[in-house]
Write a structure and sequence with these properties.
The chain is α+β, with helices and mostly antiparallel strands. Helices cover about 50% and strands about 15% of the residues.
Length: about 260
């Protein structure tokens, strides 16, 4: 019962976030969830990020554990015997009580097995031995190996949110980064909002893109961001990661998140 105080926080999640987090709690990774649900891995991580902000819980896996525990608790409640009314005979098409019990008892296992089978089928289909892998056509695809070695976004977000600020350096770095982004060609047209937050050693840049931003425009922005330099030459930063994604609740709009590490 110790997880019940979190029920109010979990109630803030929408259906899509709950579904993906329950899969995470059942042992899947963001990559396997993306394959199962037909999403990009980035879109899955954006939903996890949204869930962390809504609940105030710093770990997606902890949210997933709480959701699975909540579902298991609800299942046990559902298994309690219902009061019977002797004056109303059971429906002729109602399943026997024992069958209903077994169906509910084994339902999570059967669902997990089906999802694993679908994941393996999707993997085999994507890795046909007779067809060579297509060459990357976008900047995001070209950076695929680089993405695999990126730091955990949860760790970066927590470092900015919980780390100390440098009273002299942080405001100056925020201003220099913000100006550097706004100096990018067409930035104000393609990015509808931007927020820069700097702890003492790490800066986070987060924003929203305009609806229906094309892949070509996204790649153009990414190329500009990768070569961006703060407007203040005394602020020395190293790019850590840049990510575009879809907003969890509005698929037509997008998000942008970047992290910069202090070098001096």
């Amino acid at each position: 019962m110790k997880d019940q105080p979190f029920d109010a926080a979990l109630a803030r999640l929408n259906a899509a976030e709950r579904e993906l987090l329950i899969l995470l709690g059942q042992g899947h990774t963001a990559k396997s969830i993306a394959v199962l649900k037909g999403l990009s891995e980035l879109a899955v991580n954006e939903r996890f990020r949204s869930a962390r902000r809504k609940t105030g819980i710093g770990s997606s896996r902890e949210i997933a554990r709480l959701l699975v525990a909540q579902e298991n608790r609800d299942d046990l409640i559902d298994l309690a015997p219902l009061p019977t009314d002797a004056s109303k005979p059971p429906r002729p098409d109602a399943p026997p009580l024992g069958r209903a019990f077994l169906t509910r008892r084994w339902r999570p296992i059967m669902i997990t097995a089906a999802l694993l089978a679908a994941s393996l089928l999707s993997y085999e289909t994507a890795k046909s031995p007779t067809e060579p892998n297509p060459a990357p056509t976008t900047l995001s695809a070209q950076n695929a190996p680089e993405r695999q070695t990126r730091p955990d976004p949860e760790v970066l977000e927590a470092e900015v949110a919980n780390g100390p600020r440098d009273a002299a350096w942080s405001p100056r770095a925020e201003q220099a980064l913000s100006q550097g982004y706004h100096d990018v060609s067409a930035f104000d047209e393609d990015i509808t909002s931007v927020k820069v937050t700097c702890a003492s050693t790490l800066c986070e840049v987060s924003g929203e893109t305009r609806p229906n931003l094309s892949n070509a425009d996204r790649d153009r922005l990414m190329a500009a961001f990768l070569t961006l330099r703060p407007s203040d030459e005394k602020i020395r930063l190293t790019s850590v990661t840049h990510r575009f994604g879809y907003r969890p609740d509005e698929q037509e709009a997008g998000t942008y998140v970047a992290y910069w590490r202090r070098r001096d």
